[in-house]
Amino acid sequence: MAYCKKDSPGYQRESYLKFDLSGLPASAFNMGSATLRLTGGVTGPDTANAKWVYYATASKQWTENGITWNNAPRDGQQIGEVPGTIKTTGSTVDFNIPQSVMQAAWQSDKILSIRIIMQPRNSSVPGSFYSDFASKEATNTTYKPQLLFNYAELEAPGYVPNIVMDEITYDSILLDLIASGSARYLISTQVTTKANQALTATPRPPPM
């Protein structure tokens, strides 16, 4: 995590986080939504006056040691905002990352870059909105930023599901698949063939 501060009167802070998704299996193809979880580093009441507006930046070339207020990326789409609460050391704040953002990162350069702007919740109410989150350098490993998400994987090449049909009766088949169009066509063809065989088969006599 990198922090940027504007050298002028007032409290203008932005946080930047970057996650490398390239460690996921190459077979991953369907990214789910994610939760970015940040942990407060110190206790303080100021965050009750804060809100955090966050973005997925399109520019991802920044580095933790090289980013400054003047060169920090400020492009990309706003994802949402989270209201502040009275923070205690070790308390967490969750930021929802939509599936579309995760999928776009995975299908492009496999880098997710997030920008968080710290703002007063109500600009007409005086008071500090100081915010503090632990970075990856935190001594307590549970305080480090976390990106929590699920993903689906493609089956191994050449894999064909084994469909077992009852040859006497056939009522209904429910398929809930996340597969490519060709896989759905292949499975559908097998189901149709087996279903026709079941419907035209001569029933076996009951056991004596």
Task: Describe the protein's architecture and organization.
By secondary structure, the chain is of the alpha+beta class. It has two domains: 2-153, Sandwich (Jelly Rolls); 155-208, no CATH class. The chain contains two helices and eight strands. It has helices at residues 99-107, 181-200, and strands at 2-5, 13-20, 28-39, 50-56, 77-83, 92-97, 111-120, 146-153. The strands form two sheets. The protein has a five-stranded antiparallel sheet. It has a three-stranded antiparallel sheet with strand order 6-3-8. A hairpin with a 7-residue loop joins strand 1 and strand 2 (13-20). The longest helix is centred in the last third of the chain and has 20 residues, at 181-200. The chain is elongated.
Please describe the topology of this protein.
Layout: E1 2-5, E2 13-20, E3 28-39, E4 50-56, E5 77-83, E6 92-97, H1 99-107, E7 111-120, E8 146-153, H2 181-200
Antiparallel strand pairs: 1-2, 2-7, 3-6, 3-8, 4-5, 4-7
Structure, briefly:
This protein is α+β, with helices and mostly antiparallel strands. The chain contains two helices and eight strands.
Please describe the structure with a list of short key phrases separated by commas or semicolons:
alpha+beta, 2 domains, three-stranded antiparallel sheet, Jelly Rolls, five-stranded antiparallel sheet, 30% strand, elongated, 14% helix, 208 residues
Through-space gap between termini: 75 Å
Number of strands: 8
Biggest sheet details = 5 strands, antiparallel
The dominant shape is elongated
**Alpha plus pi helix count:** 2
Could you tell me the CATH topology label of the largest domain: Jelly Rolls
> What structural class is derived from the secondary structure elements?
alpha+beta
String of helices and strands: EEEEEEHEEH
Which spans have pLDDT < 50 for at least 5 consecutive residues? 159-182
Q: Quickly count the domains.
A: 2
Percent of residues in beta strands? 25-35%
CATH top level label of the largest domain: Mainly Beta
Query: What percent of residues adopt helix (DSSP H or I)?
Result: 10-25%
Mean pLDDT value: 74
Strand order of the largest sheet: 1-2-7-4-5
C-alpha-based Rg, rounded: 26 Å
CATH architecture of the largest domain: Sandwich
**Oligomeric status:** single chain
